[in-house]
Amino acid sequence: MRLAFSTLGVPGLPIPDVVRLAATHGYHGVELRAHPEEPVHPGIDLSERADVASEFKAGGIEILGLAGYGRVAAPGDDGPVIEEIRRLLDLARDLGAPYVRVFPGADHEQTTERADALAARRLGTAAEYAADLGVRILLETHDSHRRAADAIRILGPVGHRHVGALWDVMHTWLGGEQPSESYAALSPFLGYVQVKDIASAEDTTPLALGAGVLPLTECVEVLSRHGWDGWLCWEYEKRWYEEAAPLQELLAAGREHLARLLNECA
Q1: CA-based nearest residue to 231, from 220, 215, 241, 240
Q2: Where does residue 227 fall: left (phi above 0), alpha (psi -120 to 50 degrees), or beta otherwise?
Q3: 26: left (phi over 0), alpha (psi -120 to 50) or beta
Q4: SS3 for 160?
Q5: DSSP letter at 61?
């Protein structure tokens, strides 16, 4: 398995510094938060995109994916949701990123059946565009569909190889799933895995990997046991928790912790 971190942990950090951090601390890739607050988002022009791609290539670091904020199960017209995803897909193509992340985002007034059908329809439509660009859309286990069992109600009906799953281990755990259950459900769709750690279900302030309660050992063990060889991406939510320790101070120990888990489970 290869290791990455998300720029959610280093809000607003210039791309050269992001690349330098990854190279210095032994990470193979970076997930870029694609938001207007950040250096990389769909609003940047072609020359800026080329500069970003060149910076990563020169540093020997891969762009794992773009963490977008499209909500495919949200109520409303399909048009704006599809357009948001397409703009992310265009950006991913220009940067050479293989994945684009979307959220479910259903609200409490929707029935489960309506939300699932809405998300599947939109993802099915966007999948054809993604296939043309060679990029894969990943639905994250998050918010209204935090369990793998929830996500596959959408992914199964879509049935397209350019639509898959992003397993956020915190959300499946908060949803009451065991790692073995989550993997079993997501394995046919799995793009990559987001790891993190927190103090408790009530306190989700990000912690150093291994310092909290999330079942990271079990997650790595089940992935290893099934021969999965994709990406583990550390999503440290510094942007939402200003009081959290700087990610820069934790990256080396985080890589060592993940490497130790991988070695123990090999």
Answers
A1: 220
A2: left
A3: left
A4: coil
A5: -
Residue identified by tokens 């993604």 is 130
Residues 114-162 pLDDT 10s: 999 999 999 999 999 999 999 999 999 999 999 999 999 999 999 999 9
The residues, any chain, with a CB within 8 Å of residue 259's CB and separated by 6 or more, are 3
- Per-residue DSSP letter, 245: P
Specify whether the CB–CB gap between 195 and 219 falls below 8 A: yes
Percentages of the chain per state (helix, strand, coil), in multiples of 5: 45, 20, 35
Find where tokens 């809000």 sit. Answer: 11
> C-alpha angle with apex 212: 209 to 216, nearest 5 degrees?
60
103-121 tens-digit pLDDT: 999 999 999 999 999 999 9
Which pLDDT does position 76 carry in this prediction?
Answer: 96
What is the C-alpha to C-alpha distance for residues 236 and 195, in angstroms, rounded to an integer?
Answer: 8
Phi, psi dihedrals of residue 192, rounded to the nearest 5°: -155, 180
**Tokens (6 digits) for 186:** 């997501």
| Contact (Cβ atoms closer than 8 angstroms) between residue 63 and residue 97 | yes
Backbone angles phi, psi at 63, to 5 degrees: -90, 110
> Does the pTM exceed 0.90?
yes
